[in-house]
Amino acid sequence: MKAKVLFLTFLVGAVMSLSAQQYEPQIGFSTENGSKTNFKKNAATDNMFITLAGGANILIGDKNGDANFGDRIAPQGALSIGKWYNPYLAFRLQINGGLMKNYSFITKTGVMQDYTWINPHVDIMWDVTNFWAPYKESKVFRFVPFVGMGYGHRNKMTDDAKVVMNRSESLSAHFGAQMLFRLSRGIDLALEGQYTLLDQEWNKEAHTGTRTRYHRVPQLMLGLNFNLGKKEFEVIEQMDYALLNDLNSQINALRAQNAELSKRPERCPDCPPPPVIPPARENVQNVVYFRLNKSIIDPHQEINISTTADYAKKHNLPIKLVGYADRKTGNPDYNKGLSERRARAVAKQLTEKYGVPTNRISIDWRGDEVQPYSVNEWNRVVIMNTDDK
């Protein structure tokens, strides 16, 4: 009867621990692809970034292709401000521009036109590495394609041949990709390739004949990406309803057995009294469950610690504590330290709150090298043994 009650207490503690633990966030990593993972929404000022970059562009369209490739390269810069709404989706505002070299009229004037331009645009960014692979904040490399729309502005200019090109404006479409190389938690090296489409009015002045339908501006830039605010996203684990239903079924079956046992007479009136046998001390094993990546004792686990402390003090027994961590999260070195912190937290509670002498407590920790239970989540425990052998 006593064994069944203890086992029932064990199962109730497990269910309560799992119920809370399933929603305990993992910070900075996930075990499934980002597209299949639920992430906690961060504050508005978290996951912001600013990118400063410089590079070069080439204008394609009209007769620019008649000039040498090297002569058409012009310098430019870019400033980007954006925010990641989850590990694989972001929006940014980028302002890029600088010089642009135009050779469309060199056959007419003999002079290359060199003018300034600016092009603000809004882009949708998609981190492929965090979408198709498990999210990990500390990834060394990330590949981020993007698309966007914007507005291009070219200043009025007069070249050396006295050809005037008035100010021009154009809607712009943008396609490209960014490669981010982690330098530290807050800084990435950003290599970006971008392809911009501008309409035929970009070179409208002093132009006769058939016009290019679109002007294209390939760009290549290198810079630094600065991460602002909280960078990590928190993963919310889904509830394992199958496991909970199975545990509830076991609890209900034990309750039914206990109810049946309670109906039986405690003794037989016609039977001789049983011999008086001194109560035998037994090894009482109890557990303290922890939330994922935590070493803080939950209030609903106090009953297990209290029961163990009372039994050990009553029979003057030592208590051996062994801490564990589950194998499917973290890494062996981290889990080793986590299991030690859990064991020491229980030892501190036994001593300071329940008055168990420190010389009656021994501590060990196994990390994830030993898994006492077949269910992965159950191994986030400290097992308490009372035995004088």
What's the topology here?
Elements lengths: L1 H20 L4 E2 L1 E5 L4 E2 L8 E10 L16 E13 L2 E14 L3 H4 L3 E14 L1 H5 L1 E3 L4 E14 L2 E2 L5 E2 L2 E15 L4 E13 L14 E15 L5 E3 L4 H22 L21 E6 L12 H14 L3 E5 L8 H21 L8 E5 L15 E6 L3
Parallel strand pairs: 17-18
Antiparallel strand pairs: 1-15, 2-8, 3-15, 4-5, 4-14, 5-6, 6-7, 7-9, 9-12, 10-11, 12-13, 13-14, 16-19, 17-19
Characteristics of this structure?
4-stranded mixed β-sheet; 389 residues; 22% helix; 8-stranded antiparallel β-barrel; single chain; alpha+beta; 38% strand
Rough shape? rod-shaped
By secondary-structure content and strand pairing, the structural class works out as alpha+beta
How are the strands ordered across the major sheet?
Answer: 4-5-6-7-9-12-13-14
Number of strands: 19
Number of helices: 6
Low-confidence spans: 1-9, 14-24
Q: Report how far apart the termini are.
A: 24 Å
The secondary-structure element order is HEEEEEEHEHEEEEEEEEHEHEHEE
| Radius of gyration from CA coordinates | 35 Å
Major β-sheet annotation: 8 strands, antiparallel, barrel
Question: What is the mean predicted local confidence, pLDDT?
Answer: 83
Strand content: 35-45%
Share of helix among residues?
10-25%
